[in-house]
């Protein structure tokens, strides 16, 4: 939200007063004086007028986890361990998963408390590729790549999937790049050819690649540089 709107929404200031506060350099966002009425205030921003704290702000947090098989992409589950059970951090309840994986799918999982960051990562419109290593029961035929690049019709959602890239690695293994994350998307794409996915591993989401040193179940915070890439 713009800082002028943030301030005038408070009961203590009207719009005229907000304009003056900004001109008089009395407003600080994250410790920096701002005169710009368009300056952005986020839920994470600390906002002060003179020495009065109007919003305390909170730290933005982003983690990369190597999801193991046999764990649910949810914050809570009555039966199975969840990916959040693997994270040992304060205020875990603020965290959410950016792009779920199925119970037995392994690989890169991004976890954050920043909703607009995770939306940028997962929205099909931003077209960030999600790259999967896939192993299948049957041979992957040459016709798959063309069909995947044309898009597949998913009757349940009444949509056609966006063009996907398929790179064959072996007779029954491939690397698939998709820009959206429909329910069981990869399995349904191979299912179109009656070919069952036996192993599925997410290697990359946009520019963020699963760290090779992370073993299944391990995680680490993202660096500032990685966070800014999204
Ligand atoms: N597509 C699937 O079918 N499963 C996943 O876990 C991820 C993508």
Automatic annotation (TrEMBL):
Classification lineage: Bacteria, Pseudomonadati, Pseudomonadota, Gammaproteobacteria, Pseudomonadales
UniProt xrefs under NCBIfam families: pseudouridine synthase
Entry keyword set: Isomerase, RNA-binding
InterPro entries the record matches: PsdUridine_s_RsuA/RluB/E/F_cat (IPR042092), PsdUridine_synth_cat_dom_sf (IPR020103), PsdUridine_synth_RsuA/RluA (IPR006145), PsdUridine_synth_RsuA/RluB/E/F (IPR000748), PsdUridine_synth_RsuA/RluB_CS (IPR018496), RsuA_PseudoU_synthase (IPR050343), S4_RNA-bd (IPR002942), S4_RNA-bd_sf (IPR036986)
Name listed for the protein in its UniProt record: Pseudouridine synthase
Family: Belongs to the pseudouridine synthase RsuA family.
Protein EC: 5.4.99.-
Function: Responsible for synthesis of pseudouridine from uracil-516 in 16S ribosomal RNA.
PROSITE patterns found in the cross-reference section: PSI_RSU (PS01149), S4 (PS50889)
Reactions listed under catalytic activity: uridine(516) in 16S rRNA = pseudouridine(516) in 16S rRNA
Residue ranges occupied by any RNA-binding S4 domain in the UniProt entry: 1-58
Pfam families hit by this protein: PseudoU_synth_2, S4
